[in-house]
Amino acid sequence: MRPVNLIPEGKQQGARKQLRTGPLAYIVVGALFAALLGVTALVVTGNQISDREAEIAQLTREDADEKARLAELSGYTSFHAASQQRVATVASLAASRFDWERVMRELTLVLPGDVWLTDLTGTASAEATVEGASGIALRSSVPGPALELSGCAAGQESVAGFVSALKEIDGVTRVGVQSSQIGDREIAEGATASGAASGGGTCQTQSFIAAFEIVVAFDAAPVPVTGAVE
Predict the structure, then answer these.
(1) Is 98 exposed, middle or buried (0-12, 13-18, 19+ CB in 10 A)?
(2) Which of 145, 108, 135, 127 is nearest to 223 (CA)?
(3) pLDDT tens for residues 109-121?
(4) DSSP-assigned beta bridge partners for residue 154
(5) Contact between 123 and 145 (Cβ < 8 Å)
(6) Which segments of the chain does DSSP mark as H helices, in order?
(7) Cα–Cα distance measured from residue 54 to residue 49, given in angstroms and rounded to the nearest whole number
(8) Which of 33, 61, 65, 187 is deepest in the core (most CB within 10 A)?
(9) For residues 179 and 57, what is the distance between their CA atoms, to the nearest angstrom?
(10) C-alpha dihedral over 151, 152, 156, 159, to 10 degrees?
């Protein structure tokens, strides 16, 4: 059978006109969609902020833990540094030990028969001091080990020969003469009389005798970390 529309033609057009709602519906839908996007963006942003704050809090706690651990280990670090410093000091002292026994032995071998010593001082550095030693000003120019020799010789030629002999000692780098003076007859006679009266005296008992002060330097030897006498 063939279908027949029994609704009048005017009525049918009115029905179709009621279905036309216009652009308002699209505006409403677009507003809702925009609102949904805004809410979604706010939620996502809020979650990201929360995650960052959680990360910052975690990093802060880790930093505090590391600082506490470092504080606990600082004592061990200080002990390690002190231990290394002591090892370095001992090594430096060992390296700077000076063989005074050998030097004294060689000095006795090169000492001429016409030269005699009244004072002999050996120090490892210019800062070292020896109680009762006379002290020669030239010693301050030698930073490392050195010998200070005071005595007399049978004339200036003997002093010069003694200076040359001192240079033969192993390790000697230079020999400095602070003074070398011939005594006159009056001084010699006065010294002889004074020595006879006191039981002691000076070595310059004759006018031809030269009194000297000499410093023997060992510049190549290591300078010790302290000024203590070896």
Answers:
(1) buried
(2) 145
(3) 999 999 999 999 9
(4) none
(5) yes
(6) 9-18, 24-95, 100-110, 156-166, 185-198
(7) 9
(8) 187
(9) 80
(10) -50
Using CB atoms within 10 A of its CB, is residue 125 exposed (0-12), middle (13-18) or buried (19+)? Answer: buried
Among 48-57, 67-76, 146-155, name the one with the lowest average pLDDT. Answer: 67-76
The closest of 123, 180, 178, 110 to 152, measured between CA atoms, is 180
Burial of 152: CB neighbours in 10 Å, binned 0-12, 13-18, 19+: buried
Q: Which two tokens stand for residue 51?
A: 């995650």
Q: Which string of DSSP letters, residue by residue, matches 121-157?
A: EEESSTT---TT----GGGGG--S-EEEEEEEESSHH
Rounded Cα–Cα distance for residues 128 and 228 (Å)? 6
The more confidently predicted of residues 2 and 203 is 203
161 to 98, 170, 185: CA distances (angstroms):
26, 17, 24
pTM over 0.70: no
For 9-53, write each residue's pLDDT tens digit.
655 555 555 545 567 777 777 777 777 887 787 778 877 887 888
